[in-house]
Amino acid sequence: MSNDLSDAVHGAFFLAGPTAVGKTDVALAVAEACNGEIVGADAFQVYRGLDILTAKPSAAALARVPHHLVGTVSLNEEFNVGRYLEAALAAIMDIRQRGKLPIVAGGTGLYIRALTRGLSDVPPGNPELRAELSAIPLPELLARLEALDPEAVAVIDIKNPRRVLRALEVCIVTGKPFSSFRQEWQTQPFFHGVLLERSREELYERIDRRTVAMFEEGVVEEVRAALTAGRVSATAEQVIGWGEISALLRGELSQAEAIAAIQQTTRRYAKRQLTWFRREPFLTPVDVTGGSDILAIIERAAAVPR
């Protein structure tokens, strides 16, 4: 990351946390109090469509405060951390040049780490090796990855064959553990941000309620419309709930089964998010169980040099 770009990110305020912790409301309050604009850091909210499934900020929220990298990419496009880094840096610099505070808010740890540490030189995909590995059952892929890189197994989504396959591919192609590339990212000296946390019981209850609410708001029809409209990229299909609702539409799951499966998957995802963010030393934990201490968070954001 160049010094100019690093300086730009130093002028941003980061607001991270697991899904359903309440980042949207806090980000809006901070933005309004600090003359800020919000830069999304969510791998799925960046897509247009699937507003309910991805828990995208409401139309009213988007009208209250300018948002960037929310609903900007077509569902049929592949999107990755490299594209995110380029677009997010451009948005952050634009916001700063207009004298406002960029608030990077989201739950995709890889995106936030790329902004604060740059990108490691991870090799591109190997189509022949990937085709070979794709024919291997997930348990065997996991066993191979465990032998080569147990640290990667501890941090990636082991239920996601695509993630497991990619980590194993990197290990084989480079002869180095996939997790070592994360350690090679250049650490920048200091950034400003908070990590929102809640008690596990409260967070899981919020996840469960939100999942039920999605179905009441029409998420099944939203997914049906996306399927009917045409091709959905492989990255967009990784949205939590896409697979379960697609199975519901095919008659393979009942609605109750789909809801329960999404709730369980989301809880596991929240746990992985917390594990990731707690390793970022610049994020100060803020416990918002029972209600957010908005004033303390606003004071931190207001102290960011402009």
The CATH architecture assignment of the largest domain turns out to be 3-Layer(aba) Sandwich
Q: What form results from the Cα inertia axes? A: globular
Superfamily at the CATH H level of the largest domain?
P-loop containing nucleotide triphosphate hydrolases
How many helical elements?
A: 15
Rg, alpha carbons: 19 Å
Pairing-aware structural class of the strands and helices? Answer: alpha/beta
What order do the helices and strands follow? Answer: HEHEHEHEHHHHHHEHHHHEH
Instruction: Work out the strand percent.
Output: 5-15%
Q: How would you explain this protein's 3D organization?
A:
The chain has 306 residues and is an alpha/beta fold. The protein has helices at residues 3-10, 23-34, 59-64, 81-97, 109-117, 127-134, 138-148, 150-155, 161-174, 178-183, 200-216, 219-229, 242-249, 255-277, 294-302; strands at 13-16, 36-40, 67-68, 101-106, 192-197, 283-287. The protein folds into two domains: 3-120 and 190-302, P-loop containing nucleotide triphosphate hydrolases (Rossmann fold), CATH 3.40.50.300; 127-183, Histone, subunit A, CATH 1.10.20. Helix content is 54%, strand content 9%. Strands 3-2-4-1-5-6 form a six-stranded parallel β-sheet, with helices on both faces. Helix 6 (127-134) crosses helix 9 (161-174), helix 11 (200-216) packs across helix 14 and helix 13 packs antiparallel against helix 14 (255-277). The longest helix is centred in the C-terminal third of the chain and has 23 residues, at 255-277.
